Amino acid sequence: MHEPFRDPSVPLPDRIDDLMRRLSLDEKVGLLHQYQAPVERLGLGAFRTGTEALHGLAWLGPATVFPQAVGLATTWEPDLVRRVGEATGDEVLAFHHKDPAGAGRNVWAPVVNPLRDPRWGRNEEGYSEDPWLTGVMATAYARGLRGSAPETFKTAPTLKHFLAYNNETDRCTTSSNLPPRVLREYELPAFRPAIEQGAAVAVMPSYNLVNGRPAHLSPLIGQVLRDWAPDDLLVVSDAYAPGNLTGPQGYHDTLPEAYAHAVKAGIDSFTQDDDRSEATLGHLHTALDLGLLAEEDVDRAVRHTLSIRFRLGEFDRATPYEDITDSVVNCPEHQALAREAARRSFVLLRNDGLLPLAGAPKVAVLGQLGDLLMEDWYSGTLPYAVTARTGLAERCETVFCEAVDRVTLTSDAGAVTADPAGGPLRVGAFEVGSFDLLDWGGGAYALRAVATGRFVSVDGVTLVNDQPGPNGWEVRQTFRMEERPRGTLALRHISTGCYVGAGEDGVLRLVDDADQAVWLAMDVVRSGTEQAARLAAAADVAVVVVGDHPLVNGRETEDRMTLALAPAQDAVIRAVRKANPRTVLVITSGYPLTWTDDEVPAVLWSAHGGQEYGHALAEVLFGDADPEGRLTQTWYRSEQELPDLLDYDIIASDATYLYFRGVPLHPFGHGLSYTTFEYADLRVHLDGDLVRAEATVTNTGMRPGVEVVQFYTHQQRSRVKQPLRRLRGFEKVRLAPGESRTVALALPVSELAFWDVTRSRFVVESAPHRIMVGRSATDVRLSARFEIAGETIPPQSGLLRAADHDEYDAVTFVDETKVDGDAIRSDAEGAWILFRQVDLTGSAQCVATAGSAEGGMITIRRGDPLYGQALATFPVPRTGRYTYQDITASLAAVDGVHDLYVVFENDGVTLARIDFGAGA
């Protein structure tokens, strides 16, 4: 029997139509879960979404581990990022061919959330605080994952996480406040390029709410994302997020109601209950039975899913990727690529001439990360690990110490000892046990038993020593130290919040009550700081390798409170530098860090660099390669310079390099070279719809070097607050000594647009602009002025939506209805929103559409929220949460254009809109 859906010569939409006609409703509903049921009568196999591949294939065993995503981005080299995506896609295919059920071809990568706040626990998963650069890198990686065949995907990349997701703290219940300009100018642009260019073919919504509505129910999925996509776009839920709609979010009363809403909003695949799909499918069937969901709603979702499966070649006799085998996994080519990516990601933050190292010096390799490579939650299993110590030992004579304190712990009942077999810890033994104390910062410590070399962990409630280090979804190997009388301390288990107590048998166990905690005296039997200083003093050069632990210092489910390096590691830096001024500080972290010694002569940073980290580090330290990396987010001097973690309004809070007015520790785009560069001859002119700029860059040093030439613009006059600078383009150039290169920018004038809240569209204003070219966002070498003839935004009049205001104070963005729209709710007496330049000519009355659970009052004032003339007052009646009343008020006789403050006289008032045209 001829089945058109299996015929590659039939147009794809027709193939999908044919298969859809053959499926029953029950079979179609079965395709709406992460684990899609097979349809054996049609020869459809099982299909699963969700293989993690953020910087290499994850969770399925040894596979090539590339630098973390934020490290890949610091290369400022999209083609390299694309090649890493290609290699990762190959390894996904290799695992899939070996185990189709274990390695699905819908990959959940890349992460495109702009890195608004470095305290975000998942900072290492993103690319940049700049949305445009994020889009460039995400598109490159997704294009590599997708493969080069024009019609058939290698894998189906999924962008994470839509939308406004930068906090782990209460992530399932917090709502991200997104004013329209922040939404359109900052959050959405990071998602657009990969979707619009067809590089990514799926999207995952985030756990949080946005303006009061769960992201999984966002109308923007259908109104924006799918409008960008050239073909069908698959939308998969995040794990267990559908259940949150009735659970912690309480947005709907029943799961059938919630799931029906999710399907209508655009969710095509429910990631719920792991491989147990029965409950989810049951709720969907109930929704159908109750009329909450129609078959055409199901059809629409299934079509998106099947489109991806068709484009993966599932129903074709052969695909271009059939010959990929497990021989590609960690193959020599991928190892070389991992080394290249790590080498090009290193950022030289400071250098007084100490680097590059010359000759074959004796090097002291010191610090907690000196002989350690770590996996993060979304990395694969390291097939091998080239540490800093290993990489440098291949180049010169080295000595090493971890620079951690060795301690003993004793209580009134005796010393704490570790079972040599890895079993329980006890107090009261005659022998004295010793432990290495690792400080990971933020008050998190890990203890490693010297007798076994294994870390102290908690098995059930019992303390044991059987782990290789902090690990797992629920890290059970870290403790806090709380002071107790007479110089003693109590240990508190971070994961559970319980204290460490001792039973009658002496075994250390967790207890709930702080009063039951055992008091321990900690004595240092060997100072790691002193040992490091002694080794440094006897060496030609000291290399101190410090940083974070990806599973301890913030991660999924856990944000950071501080950017400061762990105190014990910070102390090692100071002591080593005093012992040997020829000290190189090497920082390895997934986010910006701060430290206290500002006299270290050379500082090098990278994200966790994967399996080839040590080789790459040695190549950069010894000058085999110029440090090519440049920062993709601002390094602040302290977390005190940051707004609240939950403040997503980067415009109002002066956040990110776009608006930050302070002097950062290191600016966006920063990174030094081993040579010097000069910039000259900046030329800028308008060429039709393009702004063209050129500049000449010359290597003025004595050795080859790499420069990342960065172009920024600033609009100098505007109706609204504009960024201080915005990245518009860059070019990475490699120059021999004395060589010059002309670098160019061709910027469409349309890219100079911003979101005009008065007309809900992008607009290019008539205004002067300045173009800046240089080495970073603040290291500008040349600038020039140019004029744009655009629009002048006219005064606004008539109907004004409350969410489309210009400025605000003490208000929250909320959902106008459960389905669509944004409104404003007052959070305090005297809260206000401002509408600039409102034309009241001929307006005699106005209508406010508002509601309040307790009732309230709204006043419109001219020019000032406290003392401005009151033009109208609206008594707001008591209403339901999504019930609004149209309240009419007479308007004082004031013609002309004015700035109007809508003042809420009490909290809890929700305003949807004000119409100044009603009854005019």
TrEMBL record:
Provide the alphabetized UniProt keywords.
Answer: Hydrolase, Signal
> Which is one Pfam family of this protein?
Glyco_hydro_3_C
Leader sequence residues: none
All residue ranges annotated as the CBM6 domain in the record: 798-917
Q: Which InterPro entries match?
A: Actin-crosslinking (IPR008999), BXL (IPR044993), CBM6 (IPR005084), Cellulose-bd_IV (IPR006584), Fn3-like (IPR026891), Galactose-bd-like_sf (IPR008979), GH (IPR017853), Glyco_hydro_3_C (IPR002772)
A GO molecular-function descriptor = hydrolase activity
Name residues in a coiled coil: none
Known PROSITE patterns for this protein?
CBM6
Question: What family does the database annotate?
Answer: Belongs to the glycosyl hydrolase 3 family.
Q: What is this protein called?
A: Glycoside hydrolase family 3 C-terminal domain-containing protein
Organism listed in the record: Nonomuraea marmarensis
